[in-house]
Design goal:
The protein has 5 helices and no strands. It is mainly α.
């Protein structure tokens, strides 16, 4: 009876496994500063998001159909609420795929949090590098509006006394 729902959970789990793989590839690309690789991973991730959306619609339809066959009128039903209506074997399989999916989602979330930290660290490094290469404005570089002679105003870092 819940065959379509179990298949939908399997498909969602497999998609999340692929997301996890891409998240790890993304981390490596950021670590190695490989922007081309990162761009390719993001494009593949975008395609997976579309697959995920279609798969989620299948899960919603399977759930709705199952509820209709059972004569239940309920919105936002959970797997735990469905299990008592299933035969033991189906209920166990549904629970198994639910747990697998939740684990994949947890791993994906953790990897994305690590990736976010990596990107923030990379941005901090880039900003520090830019700051090191850009000189700060000082009196040596700016024309002061005080009463200095023309000779003093023309002095640069290279003219300074040793």
């Amino acid at each position: 009876m819940a065959k379509h729902l179990i298949e939908a959970l399997k498909d969602l789990t497999k998609l999340h496994e692929r997301f996890n793989g891409l998240a790890k590839e993304k981390a490596e690309a950021v670590k190695k500063s490989e922007m081309k690789t990162l761009d390719e991973v993001l494009k593949r991730e975008s395609a997976l998001i579309q697959e995920l959306s279609a798969c989620e619609k299948k899960r919603q339809i399977a759930t709705s159909d199952w509820l209709h066959r059972q004569g239940l009128v309920k919105e936002n039903v959970t797997v735990e609420e469905m299990i008592p209506y299933l035969e033991d074997e189906e209920g166990d399989e549904l629970r198994f795929w639910q747990q697998r999916l939740l684990e994949e989602i947890r791993l994906w979330k953790e990897q994305n949090e690590l990736n976010e930290q990596l990107i923030h660290e990379s941005l901090r490094f880039v900003n520090m590098s830019l700051d090191a290469f850009q000189p700060k404005q000082s009196e040596n570089y700016a024309r002061p509006n005080r009463g200095h002679s023309y000779a003093e105003e023309r002095r640069s870092v290279f003219d300074s006394k040793a």
